[in-house]
Design brief:
Largest interface: A-B, 44 and 44 residues
CATH class of chain B: Alpha Beta
Number of strands of chain B: 9
Largest sheet of chain A: 7 strands, mixed
CATH topology of chain B: Rossmann fold
CATH architecture of the largest domain in chain A: 3-Layer(aba) Sandwich
Helix content of chain A: 25-40%
Structural class of chain B: alpha/beta
Number of strands of chain A: 12
Number of domains of chain A: 2
Oligomer: heterodimer
Shape of chain B: globular
Number of helices of chain B: 11
Distance between the termini of chain B: 49 Å
CATH topology of the largest domain in chain A: Rossmann fold
Radius of gyration of chain A: 19 Å
Number of helices of chain A: 13
Chain lengths: ~350, ~325
């Protein structure tokens, strides 16, 4: 993978993302995804895009808008509501030389076609002894927008648990672009988790912005390299996905209370930057790991175990804060379950002993 | 359907050699399970040889086959090199370096794969067919299923998607009468071949123990599929071995297998047909002797492959490994 912008240590602190907050960039996260797909499809004729409502509609979140018009309905097409069939079709197409980018409308629907993910997509390269390659991207919308327990999940650890899948979980608009380019060019299957709140926000509206300007070529960003996006001497908050943005807001609030909180964005869960994590864990006496996937048997435990195994008694005090159960529908209930800047700040305060 | 060119006596003699080669291949593997040379699960196609042999008459370079947990004969029919494949089956550093074993054989050069998950091959076949449709080479993909897989939603979804996208797929159902231990009558409603019609897919049933009947039906199905019309072929045969080697096989009615051995053995049926068409019995005996020699040479060559190295057990999970 080529060396890229946004490597370790890049962009410490909020970076310029187009115009300032409240500016005039009309693009939101879903436009960025569609533009990256368009850029890559123009570059590589073996890329095909399919899934539910990705053609005529341009995706229920708009992340494939304009592609069918530009590239035609042979390369961009709608499938029936048949996750098993179209996920399997993506695997077979990848094995026979195409580079499919397939959209799972909500990640929660993975259950419908899970055999094709668990037993085919993840395993066929290994089981073939390396004879077949699976250059495919499974894009899926994740996270909470008030749709209850069957349309709000993240499930990142579910995929990360399965050997053979790479898992990207971008936390910024720039990573939504750059990691997607890298995913498309990767020869292994990549589960690419796109948070609905990254779709919804316009460029320039997020605490941490790093999107490439409109019209600029998006270069790939490397998998397996976390980045520190805010320095802090009391607590380091480790996050992935949209919670990176909430963590930054939490850190800003904590500053006013005299707590210095840093923020680290994992960016990809597989590969996980374990060496980088251990290095970051040495920067502050507290390490808080947050996740909007389920806490039990999940990423938060994996991060803490990685640090504990490497540092032993020298490890910082560690805590985790994630989703403890099914996600309810009504706003007061949802807010009680899903981490946010407020709950992250509370957890950090406890860890910092104040 | 286009009228079939009838198989000539020399075609029948050649097919007979193919069938007895397949039979010897599977029987020798069975012996390797008994001896302990193979320690893993093993599913053999004894009784189903005519289907693969007839398939081989219609496959062209560039066609793909996605097979099942009972895959050996389809791989041979497509032209997968038997020696590295056999080395893989014998748990050596073979076709897939010992990572896949007998029911996960992958040969991308021959465009062959198989999967151990019942019904999962049909969606995968759509992907091969999608690539073929985009390349517009007139190639087809054969999605092999058993009768058991015909009750998986994956197969229904795939027939529907193949039909709406006009993908060049032949769905080939090997109906061997049992879904592990459950007879077809207790697992499967209606007529399997008629299931295609619900999706606008022509469905054809035929005697899967008779190469002539298979040849005629497959000829029409391949011709349609090459034009972008997916088809369903249901070939009825009889599984003479257990579901797997080691299956106690106590679930069949008394006398059924013995009767099938007299009336439904594709090797006997083809021998009878060849002799009645004028092929000399001695020619068939010579063909059988050649087949035995060929298979013996394949096994000798496969056993020359080294065992896979334990150091490699965890490599190759990702393309960059």
């Amino acid at each position: 993978m080529p060396a890229t912008e946004g490597g370790p240590g890049a962009g410490n602190g909020p970076a310029a993302e187009g115009p300032a907050v409240g500016g005039t960039d009309p693009r939101n996260g879903s436009h960025l995804v569609a533009d990256v797909l368009s850029q890559e499809m123009a570059r590589d004729p073996s890329i095909v895009v399919f899934g539910e409502d990705v053609g005529r509609l341009g995706g229920v979140f708009g992340a494939t808008r304009g592609l069918r018009r530009r590239f035609g309905d042979v390369r961009v097409f709608d499938t029936p509501v048949s996750e098993t069939a179209f996920l399997g079709m993506a695997v077979g197409a990848a094995q026979s030389g195409l580079r499919p980018v397939v959209e799972l409308m909500f990640v929660d629907f993975a259950g419908v076609g899970f055999d094709q993910i668990l037993n085919q997509m993840a395993k066929n390269h290994f089981m073939s002894g390396g004879r077949v390659r699976l250059p495919l991207v499974l894009r899926a919308a994740v996270g909470c927008i008030g749709s209850a327990a069957q349309h709000s999940q993240v499930l990142s650890a579910t995929f990360a648990h399965i050997p053979g899948l790479k898992v990207a979980y971008p936390g910024s608009h720039g990573d939504l672009q750059g990691l997607l380019v890298a995913a498309i060019r990767d020869d292994s299957p990549v589960v690419f988790l796109e948070h609905k709140l990254l779709y919804r926000h316009r460029v320039g509206q997020l605490p941490f912005g790093d999107a490439r300007p409109a019209g600029a070529t998006v270069e790939p960003r490397p998998f397996g390299r976390l980045r520190r996006i805010r320095d802090g001497s009391d607590v380091t908050i480790v996050a992935a996905g949209y919670l990176v943005q909430e963590a930054l807001e939490a850190a800003r609030r904590l500053t006013g209370e005299g707590i210095s909180a840093g923020v680290v964005d994992l960016r990809t869960l597989v590969p996980l930057d374990r060496a980088g994590l251990v290095e970051e864990a040495g920067r502050a006496p507290g390490l808080l790991v947050i996740d909007d996937d389920y806490t039990h048997y999940g990423m938060t435990g994996e991060v803490i175990a990685t640090v504990a195994e490497a540092l032993g008694r020298a490890a910082p005090r560690m805590a985790r804060h994630g989703v403890e159960g099914p996600i309810p529908a009504a706003r007061p209930l949802e807010e009680a379950v899903v981490p946010s800047a407020g709950s992250i700040a509370r957890a950090a305060r406890i860890l910092a002993g104040s | 359907m286009t009228p079939a060119d009838p198989l000539t006596p020399s075609d029948l003699a050649r097919l007979y050699e193919t069938l007895v080669t397949y039979r010897a291949f599977e029987e020798t593997i069975a012996a390797a399970v008994t001896s302990g040379e193979i320690h893993g699960e093993m599913h053999l196609g004894i009784g189903q040889e005519a289907i693969a042999a007839a398939l081989g008459l219609h496959l062209r370079p560039g066609d793909a086959v996605v097979s099942t947990h009972r895959p050996h004969l389809h791989a041979l029919a497509l032209g997968v090199d038997p020696v590295p494949m056999l080395a893989e089956i014998l748990e050596r550093d073979g076709l897939n370096h010992g990572k896949g074993g007998h029911m996960h054989l992958f040969d991308p050069a021959a465009r062959f794969m198989c999967t151990g998950i019942v019904g999962a091959g049909a969606p995968l076949a759509l992907g091969y067919a999608l690539q073929q449709a985009l390349a517009a080479t007139g190639n087809v993909t054969v999605a092999v299923t058993g009768d058991g897989a015909m009750n998986q939603g994956a197969v229904f979804e795939s027939m529907n998607l193949a039909a709406v996208r006009r993908l060049p797929v032949v769905f080939l159902c090997e109906d061997n009468a049992y879904s592990i231990s459950v007879p077809r009558s207790e697992s499967t409603a209606g007529d399997l071949a008629e299931r295609g019609a619900a999706f606008g897919i022509p469905g054809f049933a035929c005697d899967g123990t008779d190469v002539t009947a298979l040849d005629e039906v497959l000829r029409g199905a391949f011709a349609r599929a090459r034009q972008g019309q997916p088809c369903l072929v249901v070939a009825r045969a009889y599984r003479f071995r257990g579901h797997y080697e080691g299956d106690l096989d106590l679930y069949r009615p008394a006398g059924e297998k013995e009767e099938a051995a007299r009336s439904r053995d594709p090797v006997l049926i083809l021998r009878d047909r060849a002799e009645r068409s004028g092929v000399e019995p001695s020619a068939l005996e010579q063909a059988a002797a050649r087949a035995a020699r060929t298979v013996g040479e394949w096994f000798r060559a496969a056993r020359e492959y080294p065992a896979p190295r334990p150091d490699d057990a965890r490599t190759g999970v990702y393309a960059s490994d």
